[in-house]
Specification:
Blueprint (H helix, E strand, L loop, with lengths): L2 E4 L6 E4 L22 E2 L1 H7 L5 H9 L5 H9 L3 E2 L9 E3 H11 L6
Antiparallel strand pairs: 1-2, 3-5, 4-5
């Protein structure tokens, strides 16, 4: 079945390839959740990682030697901030971390 998107303000038709479908922008609840300028807490990071435990995130992402270059670069740019004191809050710049997760998604032991 051929599907088309029609834009009401301009005469524009876009054919959707067979086997694909149009999904509303808010189908996953992410509309308005731009990562630009956003800071994640530990809870936000856990949510974006499928509610994995914070220990899992530390072991498999932040403190994993395999990703030490990427995480070190993020720390030097203050995109990951933690004072190293127990109870000190973590602050993670959302966009760079989301880009990292997207790039290395297949490698992580989900």
């Amino acid at each position: 079945m051929t599907q088309y998107i029609e834009v009401p303000t301009k005469p524009l038709k876009i054919e959707i390839p067979e086997g694909m479908k149009v999904v509303s922008m808010d189908a996953h609840g992410y509309e308005g959740q731009s990562l630009l300028g956003r800071t994640w807490t530990k809870a936000d990071m856990r949510e974006w990682c499928g509610n994995k435990s914070w220990d899992w995130i530390l072991e498999n992402i932040i403190s994993n030697p395999k990703y030490s270059l990427q995480m070190g670069a993020m720390e030097r740019k203050n995109q990951i901030v933690h004072k190293g004191v127990k109870g000190s809050p973590w602050r993670i710049k959302a966009r760079p971390m989301a880009e990292f997760l997207d790039e290395y998604w297949e490698e992580l032991p989900w």
